[in-house]
Amino acid sequence: MIAVPEAVARLSAALGGSKAAQLAAAALVEADALGLPRFGIAMLDEWAADAVQPAMGEPQAVRWLDCSSSFAPLAVAAATLDLAAAARQCGVAAIFLRGVRGFGRLAPFVRHLADAGLVGLAGAEGPPFVAPHGGTQAVIGTNPLAIAMGQGSERVVIDVASSSATMADIRTARATGKALPDGIALDADGQPTSIAAEVAALLPRDGQIGSLLGLVVELLAGIAGGGRGDPKGRGVFLLAFDPAAAGERVDWQGKLAGLKNDWTTGGGHWPRGGGLPAEAVLDAAFAERLDAYLARMTGRGD
């Protein structure tokens, strides 16, 4: 067994010990703790000792960065920290990343922005694997979208894929031979299939709604950010703005608390996008996997 804070501290140190390293490590460990191992420390398979951290420089309202030579979770974490500083300085800021390999979940990064008193919005596009609503061929990626706002008990974090499943779900089904649920995938002939090995395209979540959400992400991360068609990796966008810039004209914190009350009183679930209690622990199998990764990263696994 290993406590989450200890796991985060050890991984953060191996990633360089910076604030970005701490955020990236926390995001990866959290995914494992939430039962999402493909988005957890398995991402360290992409780590390389010669990875280059994108140079940020002074905060800017809008920035484009090539992350193709970077360890993606660390690059996204660094961009998140830079974005927070820029949004506090400018009121609103955006960062567009391209060449990003797999980095896991968006929730930890937009949640960090919310905890800093900002509103965070992020999305990631990827290689074509999802058909548009009514279509039969893959056009866009699974294109997750996330938003976070508020602090404390009012904080809300929404992180959802615009597709009916993720590529990780399909890989898992292929490895286990498990049948897929009906109505989520198409084969090469555009026909519905529940056999993972036959999947040529996923269907969008909830039909046209998921299709249009995926298109929004593609427009921002793929077109505006330049990620679409990049053979080096995914396109990612991160946006943040400071609602406190409105001053007394908008009581946004009061309005957010009121919305939460209305939502939950009406029977709705107020999403908080993961997060772990301080006393959370991971099992011995995770601790062994972490030890193996850390040994390789520090040269003790040669």
Protein architecture, described:
The protein is of the alpha+beta class and 302 residues long. It is built from 8 helices and 10 strands. The strands form 3 sheets. A 6-stranded mixed β-sheet has the order 2-3-9-4-5-6, with helices on both faces. Strands 1-10 form a two-stranded antiparallel sheet. A two-stranded antiparallel sheet has the order 7-8. It is globular and about 55 Å long. The two termini are 25 Å apart. The relative contact order is 0.17.
Biggest pleated sheet = 6 strands, mixed
Structural class from helices and strands?
A: alpha+beta
CATH superfamily grouping of the largest domain: Malate/L-lactate/L-sulpholactate dehydrogenase, NADPH binding domain
Query: Helix and strand string, N-terminal first?
Result: EHHEHEHEEEHEEHEHEH
- As for the number of domains, it is 2
Could you give the order of strands across the largest sheet? 2-3-9-4-5-6
- Contiguous helical run count: 8
CATH architecture of the largest domain: 2-Layer Sandwich
Shape: globular
| End-to-end C-alpha gap | 25 Å
CATH class of the largest domain: Alpha Beta
- What Rg do the Cα atoms give? 20 Å
CATH topology of the largest domain: Ribosomal Protein S8, Chain: A, domain 1
Question: Approximately how much helix is present in the residues?
Answer: 25-40%
Q: How much β-strand is present in the residues?
A: 15-25%
